[in-house]
Amino acid sequence: MTGKAAPKHYAPRWNNDTRPTPPAVGSEREILSAVLDWHRATFELKCAGVPPERLSERAVPPSGLSLHGMVRHLAGVERWWFRIQFAGENVPMLYYSDDDPDQDFDSLDGDVDEAFAVWRAECEHSRQITAAAASLDETGIRKRTGEPISLRRIMVDMIAEYARHNGHADLLRECIDGSTGM
């Protein structure tokens, strides 16, 4: 360490930012769980305060993405990886059918508050499944290939999924009302 002081200027933070900072030291499970929860909280923070009707706006043409569509997508991804792939639960996929695989983004006629409630419930299911696993080495079975996939890999993939969509949410939110922040 060179002993240099931290920079004086950081990226602006959101007002009312209550996200806990993930630990710098801890077990692999603690760190991965905390980083995933931080990304979940980041997504929710980027949507906070936007009127429900504006959450459905496709604000970055030509993209069809909206914050409403993304919360539906993330609820479906949580269910797919943790409940269906890892835990082997026999539950239907969310916002999906073989005839309309992009319902999460395309069919925004549902209630926005309900979509957030479904997403929060799926996040809680995912946390419970993660906490109940004896080890991150435990595996589920990939539905497409029949091959095993570890809880560790699922958590890393979910962190990447949220990081990608949080970047999309940044752009959408800025286009909706000019708000920016980390």
UniProtKB/TrEMBL annotation:
Transmembrane segments: none annotated. Residues 1-25 are annotated as: Disordered. Residues 1-11 have a biased composition (Basic residues). Coiled coil: none annotated. This is Mini-circle protein. It comes from Streptomyces spinoverrucosus.
